[in-house]
Amino acid sequence: MASSKEYLTYVLELLREVRGISYKKMMGEYILYKDETIFGGIYDNRFLIKKTPSTDRLGLKEVIPYPSSKGMYLLDCESPNEIKDIILDIYNDLR
């Protein structure tokens, strides 16, 4: 099932506190970037983030975005400030 443009708009609103956010549509889903570094995506209208040392400590639910993919974490948070901290931690882990 493809993700909706409306859900993308919702997630981008949650990410409003994070500078350098962009996305690319790919096969009906959306890949999310911070300063050209992939940190997550939107799959089946779910906001998923990469598994990194910082996100491993959060106790989030692991999900498989699509068959044969690596696991990711479901980010079920509506606080832009908390999301900003999480995304910056992921970004720092991946650099």
Summary of the model, kept short:
The chain is an alpha+beta fold and 95 residues long.
Characteristics of this structure?
six-stranded antiparallel sheet, alpha+beta, 95 residues, 29% strand, 3 helices, single chain
Give an overview in words.
The chain is an alpha+beta fold and 95 residues long. The chain contains three helices and six strands, in the order H-E-E-E-E-H-E-E-H. Strand 1 (21-26) and strand 2 form a beta hairpin.
Shape: globular
How much helix is in the residues? 25-40%
Which strand order does the major sheet show? 1-2-3-4-6-5
Tell me the radius of gyration: 12 Å
Average of the residue pLDDT scores: 96
Structural class: alpha+beta
Distance between the termini: 32 Å
Described by strand count, sense and barrel closure, the largest sheet is:
6 strands, antiparallel
Strand content of the residues, in percent?
25-35%
Taking pLDDT < 50 over at least 5 consecutive residues as the criterion, the unreliable ranges are none
Query: How many helical stretches?
Result: 3
Order of helices and strands: HEEEEHEEH
